[in-house]
Amino acid sequence: MNQIEFYKAKLSYETDSWDLYESLERGDDVVVIDARSSEAFELEHIPSAVNFPHREMNPESVSKLNQSSVYISYCDGIGCNASTKGALKLAEFGFKVKELLGGLDWWRRDGYTTKGKNGQSRKQSVCGC
After folding, report:
1. What pTM was computed for the model?
2. Measured between alpha carbons, how far is 106 from 16 in angstroms, rounded to an integer?
3. Are 81 and 75 in contact (CB under 8 A)?
4. CA 62, 64, 68 angle in degrees (round to 5)?
5. Which residues have C-beta within 8 Å of that of residue 15, sequence separation ≥ 6?
6. What residues contact residue 5 under an 8 Å CB cut-off, 6+ apart?
7. Which pLDDT band, with edges at 50, 70 and 90, does 124 fall under?
8. Which DSSP string corresponds to 108-126?
């Protein structure tokens, strides 16, 4: 694999906060999956995210998901791998999936609003990644 192929492949498996926000604003067929526990989700999460803990993903629980959507898996951030575990499981079940770089932590750092008990309103990011 050459460098160009490597970076194209990398972008097909990862996304950042800016690109996710833009996808949601455009109304792209993306579903944001919070792969953490329901307790963590209740405290704070990305608006429009669906809580689907990676530990609960199995053939029966994913059977109602739309195969044509792109699923964006996230967790707390760089020190957590629930997003990777969730992305892997969804991919194993045949779904198109990407992992959100930096998770909820970088979503907040980039200035986006969060929901939940500890949710915070923020100004839109000016990152422009």
Report:
1. 0.91
2. 8
3. yes
4. 90
5. 23, 72, 98, 99, 100, 101
6. none
7. low
8. HHTT---BSTT----PPP-
In sequence order, the 6+-apart residues with CB closer than 8 A to the CB of 17 are 100, 101, 102, 106, 107, 110, 112, 125, 127, 129
Please state whether beta strands 14-15 and 70-74 pair in parallel, antiparallel, or not at all (unpaired): unpaired
DSSP 58: -
Q: Which CATH class is domain 9-109?
A: alpha beta
Q: Indicate the burial class of 93 (C-beta count within 10 angstroms; 0-12, 13-18, 19 or more).
A: middle
Q: How far apart are the first and last CA of the chain?
A: 25
Per-residue pLDDT at 104 exceeds 90: yes
> What sign results for the dihedral spanned by CA atoms 19, 24, 29, 31?
positive
- Spatial CB neighbours of 124, under 8 Å, sequence gap ≥ 6: 21, 111, 112
The first and second tokens of residue 47, run together, are 């608006």
pLDDT digits 0-9 by tens, 10-48: 999 999 999 999 999 999 999 999 999 999 999 999 999
